[in-house]
Amino acid sequence: MAVLEEFEQVEQPRRWRPGGRFVTGLCGVLTVLWLGYGTVRLVSLDDFGGFGYFAVALALTPYVVAGGAGLGVLMIIIGRRKPAFVLICVTLVLASLVSPRVLRNDQPDATGLNVRVLSANLRLGQADAQHLVDLVRDNHVQILAMQELTPVEVSELDAAGLSRLMPYNVYRAEPGGSGSGIASVFPLRELAEVPNTTFQMPVAIVDLPGNQDGEIVDVHAKPPIHDFATWSSELHHLPDPLPAGRVRMVVGDFNASFDHAAFRNVINRGYRDVAEQLGDGLVATWSQPWVPAMTIDHVLIDRRTAARGYAVLDLPGSDHHAIMADVQIPDHDPTAPPV
User: Fold this and answer.
1) Taking every annotated instance into account, which residue ranges of this chain make up the domain Endonuclease/exonuclease/phosphatase (predicted)?
2) Where do you find CATH 3.60.10.10 in the chain?
């Protein structure tokens, strides 16, 4: 009995875990960071204000999901199960916000004209004009929305043959990055621009064959990293879907993703994102060597219009990819309200 009591009094060695207290503390810090990030994203804290790098961080949510999954597994392997549990729970919540972008959605029963739209940010007019015209020609694009359109780029596009392919245009070309323009195979009628914007955002009615006309809004919002409040205000001033009659397409460089409350607020007015509708909502449209690629260019349609196709295309000379969307316009009484 004395031998047994002596054995019980001997302190059993602690289970060894790689890294000791330092790794345990690091796991705790990472878990707190993930928890804070998840809380901000879940409650849409950026809807109440923010600053430039805050907006950039929110756009990284898909990467945070992937990183959280990897770190959670690693913490389990090295024996830090409590922080791993919290981290994995946060990651699952964030994944539930991201995953709808890779799932296809049912489309409305639109039976009218199919229209192919291309949006291209020309990066201060430095994009390869001939390549862009080739994209238009080879893909039979019918409406082209351009951002950062300069007078020099207009001349280069015309020399490459754009005006022959698309004889109708509404151009607001300017030096630098503030110009924009719309070109089309269909007649265009210019409307008032989007108000209170830093860059040009032309708007035009598109005279489509059939019972419905279209309207296109060429979007170029100021980057939030330069001015968060202005960026949020410009997205707020984008027009709502039309309640009846012609269908409105809002196309271009929003400098925003689904992880920004300002962009989700636009969607919630009654728009749908073509890429997200077709399961391509995580395909990046912009990249820089020092920043992970992001999805900040979009084609938005109303709930009457069907998304039929989507592609992201290389555009040499630009830091954006061109995005191409096939949409089908409803063919019914143009005064009927949307479904």
Assistant:
1) 118-320
2) 114-328
pTM as predicted = 0.90
Topology, domain 114-328: Deoxyribonuclease I; Chain A (3.60.10)
- State how far the Cα of 311 lies from the Cα of 280, in Å rounded to an integer: 8
Q: Provide mean pLDDT across the span 72-76.
A: 92
Residue type, 58: L
pLDDT in tens, 8-52: 555 555 555 666 788 888 989 999 999 999 999 988 888 888 888
Identify the pLDDT of residue 19.
61
Per the CB < 8 A criterion, the answer to whether 101 and 317 are in contact is no
Q: Helix, strand or coil for residue 57?
A: helix
> Per this entry, what is the length of the chain?
339
| Cα–Cα distance, 117 to 111 (Å, whole number) | 18
